Amino acid sequence: MATVSIVMGSDSDMPVMKKAAETLDELGISYEMRIISAHREPDVFFDYAKTAESRGIKVIIAGAGMAAHLPGMCAALFPLPVIGIPMHTTSLGGRDSLYSIVQMPSGIPVATVAINGGKNAAILAAKILAVSDPDLRARLKEYSENMKKSVEEKDARLQETGVYNY
After folding, report:
1. 3-state secondary structure of 7
2. β-strand 111-112 against 82-86: which pairing, if any?
3. CA neighbours within 13 Å on the CB side: how many for 1?
């Protein structure tokens, strides 16, 4: 059973949302992934958000661009944490999405990560779940340790050769 739901309003968001899915996979967290437009199919969206808790979802990661209503509407209907990912947009570079997601009215919070921050959204979801899951907490600590080792290895190569190839 999925514990995290990844939802996006358009398949154009998939490259960013895929990073969230890959990170959840790496951490051993079950998830579902949906494409649902809150504007084009409101009945489907309302059913999705209102039934998420009964389906076992504990955190929703919602990506949205431009008007970015999806994360806020999820937070209005779903009683547990929602993490919003503002998508980069061509007109305003994602600032429109970012402002829309972070400017939620009092009482309807949405945790927000960086523009196109799929990976960080997954890590934040994992940290939320890890509060009550010691095994996941251990996996997160190992994940962080592996990131540290990766940086140290890159620095060692740079110091050894004077050149770093990306």
Report:
1. strand
2. parallel
3. 8
pLDDT in tens, 99-136: 999 999 999 999 999 999 999 999 999 999 999 999 99
pLDDT above 70 (res 142): yes
Q: What is the pLDDT of residue 162?
A: 85
Are the CB atoms for 47 and 18 separated by under 8 Å?
no
Q: What is the pTM of this model?
A: 0.94
Residue 28 near residue 136, CB atoms below 8 Å: yes
Instruction: Please report how the helices 134-161 and 118-130 are oriented relative to each other, as an axis angle in degrees rounded to 10.
Output: 140
Amino acid at 36: I
Q: How far apart are CA 19 and CA 27, in angstroms?
A: 12
**Alpha-carbon gap, residue 117 to 19, rounded angstroms:** 8
Q: E strands within 49-164?
A: 59-64, 82-86, 111-112
DSSP 3-state of 109: coil
The sign of the dihedral angle between the CA atoms of 134, 136, 137, 143 is positive
